[in-house]
Specification:
Structural class: alpha+beta
Number of helices: 12
Number of domains: 2
Radius of gyration: 40 Å
Length: 346
Amino acid sequence: MNHAPRTPEGDRRLSLREDGLLGLMAALLRYWRSILAITLGGTALAVLVSFLVAPTYRAATAIVPSGSIGGEAGLAVPGALLGAARSLGVGLGGAASDPSALFPRILSSRTFADRLLARSFPDRRGEERTLLAILAGKEGSDAARGHAARRALREEVLRSHYDLKSGVTNLTVTLGDPVTAAAAANAAVDELDALNREAKAAHAARWVEFIGERLAEAKDRLAASEDSLRAFHQQNRRYAESPLLSLEEGRLRREVTMEQELYATLRTQHELARSEEVKTVPAITVLDPARPPLERHSPYRARIAVTAFILLLVGSCCLALVRASLTEFRRRPAYRALRREVGRGT
């Protein structure tokens, strides 16, 4: 019987199962070429693909509600903003005292989106296109393009962040052209301010109409009270001699006084409302207008390269360990015996 020569202890191959960390390191060193090739090759491919991805640019602007500078910003929402929110069908909830929730809701409204999408913006080459064409192209029905563009505007392009400490709202627009991104960000502020002005004017007009109606009613009641007091005096010239007539005269005089005060108050409110109706004060103050960004926002090629290198290195090491484990398993006597049994069976 022939016996295979025994391998000296110093020459036996390190085993993953028996040698632990040394066996793990030996397995990785055994396949270091494959690990290096997969890691470097995959990283280079990821970087190459990142160059094929169209870059995006992010323009930013900072705004605050008018009247909040130098005061307690963020503690009260101007009436123009409240009117804009109601006219757009936006539920305020807690936004009546916190503008951090008001601006994002108006910016996400369909009215605002449709107005911004209809505007045209230049690019670096001087060409102009509507934001609708930029986000949805020219293929498909108008309804489908509008839906896709509004969704892209809300989810990818337009972002707003409110700083509770400073009361400043930062608005960002991310697009594939830096000039277009800056123009769209400034246009978003213009549309937001225009919506607030229009809503303010409509709200003021309704308030003027309401106060005018109440003023006319108060004027009629005042005239009726004065007529009643005048008629009483004409019919009861010596009312002071009668306690009952004196009480009646006092009651009529109090009614006239109350109606006069109410009429004067409504008259003042009516004049104030008419003044508010013709005001053109902006509802928004721009602290920092958007400018074309000099650097791209994405893709982050350095981050892509580092992430790809780490993931591929870990993955290739795992594959090397799996391969070493399979190779070691094939050398075990039990595996060879199993193969002989399978061969006999076939």
